[in-house]
Amino acid sequence: MYQYDGHDQAFVAARAAEFRDQVARRLAGQLSEDEFKPLRLKNGLYLQLHAYMLRVAIPYGVLSSGQMRTLAHLADNYDRGYGHFTTRQNIQYNWTELKDVPDMLDILAEAGMHAIQTSGNCIRNVTTDAFAGAAGDEEVDPRATCELLRQWSSLHPEFAFLPRKFKIAVIGAAEDRAAMKFHDIGLRAKPDVQRPRYDIWVGGGQGRTPRVAQLFEADVPFERLLPTLDAMMRVYNLHGRRDNKYKARIKILVAEMGLDAYRDEVYADMAERDPAAFAVAGKEYDRIAAFFDRGPVAPIDDVPVAGEGAFAEWLDQNVSAHKVPGHAVVTISLKAKGAIPGDATGEEMRLVADLADDYSAGEIRVTHRQNLVLPFVPQSALATLYGRLVEAGLATGNVGLTSDIISCPGLDYCALATARSIPIAQALSDRLREREAKARAAGVTVKGPTLNISGCINACGHHHAANIGILGLTKAEEESYQITLGGRADGGAAVGEILGPGFTAEEVPDAVEKIIEAWEANRLEGESFTDAYQRLGKAVFKAAVYEEAPRVAA
Amino acid sequence: MWLLETDGSFTRDDDIATGLEIPGEAPPAERPADPVVTIRFGGAMDGRGFSTANRLRAEGYDGRLIAAGPLMPDQARHAFQSGFDAVLVSDAQVQRQGEDAWRNAIHRSVQELYMPEPGSRGPERGIWAARHAD
């Protein structure tokens, strides 16, 4: 993985010192709360319902074991013993105190980490495929591009007070495991002679106006990548709407201007500029790429691994093919039966760090589905690793199943939420794990629809992009959960359709179960949920859910 | 009024030449011929003035560019790194935000970025350039 040099180290230390000064000026009254707000947000510090929340960047989801132990230390000493991994591959601490945050940032800086631009109207943490550098279908390792963009966008002078937040994702494989087309800008890296070339997508996003990104330009050579992004950002900064925060994302600008007009503005801006200013980026890309080219593991003999019972389920669901022979990619589910999706205790983080040292070249990933990954595990170590995960209660074999739920923190923590998310996720997890266990015991191949939950229309829980999406709203002072069907976050990205009237919290598990039963009853052999939904249409599911009144649990 | 220069000097003067004043919302259709141009920001959260300055520099404007409006000391480096030569600060701003905060605005900010902006008047040299100097 990428290693900080003295420049990177000095950069994050300087940023931590700058923020310490900003906090001191806020406490002294020299900065008003209105002035301090954008400054703290640019450093990931939110004021939530109960306390300040600090969101720490995990650039493109890559962590060393030592960095994971630092995160565990922060959880134990500055929070209530846990942290929450997010859909943008970051971690957030829910119970921090303002006066402690500068110390937390110093501790992070020592570990080569930061909270730069994890919030605010600026370019956010760049996300990617959690299997980068390990996936069997990878064409270009996207991490070098991500690190280049991290450096370029960090503390960018011109693009720090944008109309709204700005999210970039990069992928380099045929399969999209990063929901790339739901980002403000999405990049698909492809192999070329020396450095990659890129398809640039623009205008995707979720929130209250979900949009799938459109192709801005295909096959952009590396030399034109940063000049193009620079001009794309500038046109957005100058023309994006600032009169209404719900219409301020680039997806609205592109929709209102039209893609062609937006493109013309971008090329006009580029035409005035000397791209030589960006020439050094090529050498920097090569320097960064060298860290990733030296893969941490060498090919060894393939070892067939098979098991029974829960071990077999775990092998089927949580273990994926690796590009280096003799190895496997292991996903550790943070979605045990009844668990809070994405939460991990300090103790669990330390255990995962130890496992990474013992079996995965000291490296860990965070996935956008809020799980953890050990990316470089020898096949011969899988049985031992599984045993240690069982002891720690981290061996749930449900990755890719419906109980592998994405959920935002919702009204239990978030100041923006309109309904609770976590209790809904927990109730669904209980119900779905039982179904999955029964199906498996009956010898049925279980591969369920994806299920994501958001506690408000801002859609941090990615409900629009789920096969089954659940959105918590408040109607007449009561929580009401709207269900959407048919969304997809993969290469065939699509926004889900609203099924019908909302449900109470208690009704949601029954409604979801009826949807899954309707799919199972009507699907062709091997047909995925979204293919079946496309073929059958909404009516079949609507009838299944609404024809009799949903049973209400006592 | 006070003026913060790129060298960090911060002085009060009742008679500051601000030249042609334009709003930060959009770059002017034609490059100004005036030797001094002041770009007024509509608000601290409105970053369009930074892009307007950057665009003027890209178009070849080489006169003096002054940033004005309700900016914070923390935004001084953004201004200099986007092509401004100075930041105009009102007496009321200085009184509330602290003279010391403005006087130290540059050296308390992160000074060296990875890539300097074209047209930058900022203090940084650029980490990428330093890494690949030969």
From TrEMBL, chain A:
Keywords: 4Fe-4S, Heme, Iron, Iron-sulfur, Metal-binding, Oxidoreductase
UniProt superkingdom: Bacteria
SUPFAM superfamilies named among the record's database cross-references: Nitrite and sulphite reductase 4Fe-4S domain-like, Nitrite/Sulfite reductase N-terminal domain-like
Keyword Chloroplast: no
Residues in coiled coil: none
InterPro entries: NIR_SIR_4Fe-4S, NiRdtase/SiRdtase_haem-b_fer, Nit/Sulf_reduc_fer-like_dom_sf, NO2/SO3_Rdtase_4Fe4S_dom, NO2/SO3_Rdtase_4Fe4S_sf, NO2/SO3_Rdtase_FeS/sirohaem_BS
Domain Nitrite/Sulfite reductase ferredoxin-like, residue spans: 52-111, 340-391
GO molecular function: 4 iron, 4 sulfur cluster binding; heme binding; metal ion binding; oxidoreductase activity
Domain (Nitrite/sulphite reductase 4Fe-4S): residue spans on this chain: 119-271, 451-549
Protein name as it appears in the record: Nitrite/sulfite reductase
Organism this protein belongs to: Acuticoccus mangrovi
Source organism phylogeny: Bacteria, Pseudomonadati, Pseudomonadota, Alphaproteobacteria, Hyphomicrobiales
TrEMBL record, chain B:
Pfam families linked to this entry: DUF934 (PF06073)
UniProt name for this protein: DUF934 domain-containing protein
Region (Disordered): 115-134
Highest taxon in the source lineage: Bacteria
